[in-house]
Amino acid sequence: MNFYSRKWVRPEDLNANGTLFGGSLLRWIDEEAAIYAIVQLGNHRVVTKFISEVNFEASARQGDLIEMGLVATRFGRTSLTMRAEVRNMITRKTILTIERMVFVNLGEDGAPAPHGYSTITYERDRMPTIQPATE
């Protein structure tokens, strides 16, 4: 598993107990996973379909640095399944694990579409080159 993305826990990310708010962390990991799916599937049209049990193991406090890691575990015909882990760079503790996050590749019509991949890429060769049209 590679840990590429890092976040700095700031005051606006805290809950009433003064620790990292789980909702903020889930937003960050969902965004990171979507970006990972875009790179792996070569399509900017991906959506979150499923997130398995979220296991919060530790927390983070203001000023801590966290890092998020993802790895593809399965390529379906129209989907990508991955595993996620978030860890505290200061305390070295695992903050969160998610065993399964499933993203679906969509066609221009918004329906699930085959992506044609079966292996992980570590390059940016699958990055979409055409930007979505803005209205």
From TrEMBL:
Boundaries of every HotDog ACOT-type domain copy: 1-109
PROSITE patterns in alphabetical order: HOTDOG_ACOT
Gene Ontology CC terms, in alphabetical order: cytosol
Entry's Gene Ontology molecular function annotations: long-chain fatty acyl-CoA hydrolase activity
InterPro entries cross-referenced by the UniProt entry: Cytosol_ACT, HOTDOG_ACOT, HotDog_dom_sf, Thioestr_dom
Entry's Gene Ontology BP terms: acyl-CoA metabolic process; fatty acid catabolic process
Keywords: Hydrolase
Family that this chain belongs to: Belongs to the acyl coenzyme A hydrolase family.
Protein name: Acyl-CoA thioesterase
